[in-house]
Amino acid sequence: MNTLEFLYIATAICPDRQFIVFEGNRWSFAQFNGRVNRLANAFREFGFRKGDRIGMLHVNCPQYVEAYFAAAKIGAIFVPLNFRAKSDELSYMIGNAGANSLLVGARYFNMVKEMLPALPSVKTCICVDERQNGAYFYEDLIDSASSGEVSGDIDDEDITILMYTAGTTGRPKGVPLRHSGFVSYILENVEPASPEIEERNLLTVPLYHVAGMQAILGAVYGGRTLILMRQFEVKAWLQTVQDEQATRAMLVPIMMKWVIDDPDFHDFDLSSLSVITYGAAPMPFHVIRKAIAEMPGVRC
Fold first, then answer.
1. Most exposed among 131, 217, 265, 293, judged by the fewest C-beta atoms under 10 Å?
2. Exposed, middle or buried, 293 (CB in 10 Å: 0-12/13-18/19+)?
3. Which domains are present in the chain?
4. 10 Å Cβ neighbour count for 273?
5. pLDDT over 90 (residue 141)
6. Residue 272 phi/psi, 5° resolution?
7. What are the respective helix, strand and coil percentages of the chain, to the nearest 5?
8. By the 8 A CB rule, do 77 and 161 touch?
9. Cα–Cα distance between 184 and 186 in angstroms, integer?
């Protein structure tokens, strides 16, 4: 089994259920899969093939999720890049990965453009959210490509993501992550999609981190609605839980502390929440104790 099968299963079981909610826009599982097919077909028209590295530099957005699955459909390796990294660190990661294409958010485009002369492996640059000179525009590719289903020779042991470490003790290191590793974790921890059970998962963890990508795959396999935020901000998180009736959320410990310590915490209706998962750092006991006291109906 590979991660693509998560999408096929959820799309077959609940095609019309909202999959992604982002800044007022909504896409069903069927609509999402159609856009993924268009992007995968555009990748093939560029000549991308199995084993190619496709880099992504942007904050959380629906295109990030689409790009992962489109890369997976053609057997390419997705390379999520830390948008907080400095230009020399990014240049190293892109060159080290041997990325032949980059999908870039407009806010990072000028920096990337200055780096490109030193990155001979990069042949194609796609701007995600604006038209830019010297780059293809993401939505133009979606509009012009076929929506026909894309299939490739994908093995369970193929590398699906090359994820770079933070590089706190030296250069960032590329960690190859295989379909089988994600599948093993998800099957052990997530119930499959059901037409009767609907969950709404709020995600603010950055998608360049393994926790973010793992949450994406869990949401897909579980047939969950994924409420994406570009980045974490306490008031926006509280408002989004209330407005979108989120039932699940993932926070790192410091985010949890900021939420429960916010002076306006009690002004928001968080009663829809039933589960908060956390990770990436040890959870201080006083933080989790306060979280349980403040949100007694939430399983942490």
1. 293
2. exposed
3. 29-178 (3.40.50.980), 182-294 (3.40.50.980)
4. 21
5. yes
6. -70, -25
7. 45, 20, 40
8. yes
9. 6
